[in-house]
Amino acid sequence: MEKVQSVDEYISAFPADVQHVLQRLRAQLLQLVPQAKEKIGYGIPTLTLNGNLIHFAAYKNHIGLYPGSKAIAYFEEELQNYHTSKGTVQFPLHEPIPMHLVEKIVTFCVKQNLSKKKR
């Protein structure tokens, strides 16, 4: 994918079915963190709140959510049905994204990012 300038441009580069999944995820994230700002970071959609909060991206067979290594470790048990790596979880494209779990992860990330301010 060529370098994109906005989240809308990123999402529009995918087939309609993937666009729908990305738009639903984006809407959920913005509903959970209405004060967050959107940008393209590392070439993918990123929400920021006192620094990078969470990234997401689409691939051939999955949607990647990038909450960082602390969130992945904290939710390790709940993420056991998904492929994870140090700071990433992959949700298969052919399955619904578990929005209840995404909400918990995002809430964790918000608390983590806002605590940076207090230091």
Explain what you see.
The chain is α+β, with helices and mostly antiparallel strands and 119 residues long. It has one domain (7-118): Alpha-Beta Complex (Aspartate Aminotransferase, domain 1), CATH 3.90.1150. The chain has four helices and six strands, in the order H-H-E-E-E-E-H-E-E-H. The chain has helices at 7-12, 16-32, 69-74, 99-118, and strands spanning 37-41, 44-48, 52-58, 62-66, 83-85, 88-92. Strands 1-2-3-4-6-5 form a six-stranded antiparallel beta sheet. Strand 3 and strand 4 form a beta hairpin. It is globular and about 35 Å long. It starts with 6 loop residues before the first helix and ends with a helix.
Brief summary:
With 119 residues, the protein is an alpha+beta fold. Helices cover 41% and strands 25% of the residues. The protein has a six-stranded antiparallel sheet.
Largest sheet: 6 strands, antiparallel
The percent range for helix content is 40-55%
Question: What Rg do the Cα atoms give?
Answer: 14 Å
Distance, first to last CA: 38 Å
What is the CATH architecture descriptor?
Alpha-Beta Complex
How many strand segments? 6
Topology:
Elements: H1 7-12, H2 16-32, E1 37-41, E2 44-48, E3 52-58, E4 62-66, H3 69-74, E5 83-85, E6 88-92, H4 99-118
Antiparallel strand pairs: 1-2, 2-3, 3-4, 4-6, 5-6
Helix pairs in contact: 2-4
List keywords for this structure.
single chain; 119 residues; alpha+beta; Aspartate Aminotransferase, domain 1; 4 helices; 6 strands
